[in-house]
Amino acid sequence: MQQMAVSPLYVAAELEARRRWSNHEFGEAANKARAAADIARQDEDCDSWRSMTILQAESLLAAGDFEGCAAVVRDLLGGDGILAPQLRAQAHILMAKALQGSGLLDESADEARAAAELAKDEDDVEINVMARQALIGALADSGQVEQAWAESLVLADAISAEVDDQLVGKAYWVIGNVAFLCNRVADGLDYHELAASTFSPARNLGIWARFNTASAAMRLAADIADADTLRCIDRAELAIDVIGGSDEDRTLLKLNRGHWNFLAGDPAAAIEVLGEILPNQDKATPQILGEVCLLLGRAHDAVGNGSSAREYLLQAVDHFEAAGAPQRADQANVFLAALG
Fold first, then answer.
1. What is the spatial distance between Cα 100 and Cα 96, in angstroms, rounded to a whole number?
2. I want to staple 139 with a disulfide (CB 3.0 to 4.6 A). Which of 58, 148, 288, 325 is the partner?
3. What is the domain range of residue 149?
């Protein structure tokens, strides 16, 4: 495809795709971006085609369609023409996130490493930071927390004044997550505090919601059920009520609320909330289902339902193994053994 003047038809399609993205209508944004990409292809406008293909993949990812996102990125990476290192790194980052969402954590880490390798010599510091974030997330989810912490220190060094505040916040966010997983609770709280100082609900309510959801989850995993944790849960629920959110967003809210109820000494309420997730298992990743079943097993044990506790803990082991998270599977087995 040769570089051509941008057509009015393409401009209209691109504007509509970006409008849908701004309105958090991610499924429609993906459809509109694909339509714009098709117009660009017909016009032999290579740059615009790539731009809209990336937006289509980003929209599918935001909508929770991980397989769809991965398919679009594969077409981009395997298509005609040479991709610049920066764009190729972006594609590998999206692929890493899509595979992570599908529970394919080893493959996700491989894609993230490819992105980090492409980005390390690039002038674009933000792409380097995004690649490191994806790699850290995949390593952490697969239980390789010490490697994830080592990469977190590399990421911390990569942060500079050149990086956008929102991206800096996301970097501190993921570093804090890993600190929690490494039982560096004080470091986790500090990094999440740094992240919170960069985010604003007025600037981006979606990021505000996701950060508070994730921060609450990390605090709960560290058995921190204090007023700050509850504030994170309430903020996230309120924000998702406003913007809508994806199925995964709502599932994570229920997981946090159920975990809070359990730690607050109300396992019956935890069972009720967490039980709402299981009828829609196709809308949750194996990793999330593992966490849900682990908590349900512990909650049923707390109320004296030993047989149900065993059933859910066995399911948790299966889900964690399917997600490539052996350390979490081992933890579920510890609770199983404690049942006697």
1. 6
2. 148
3. 84-191
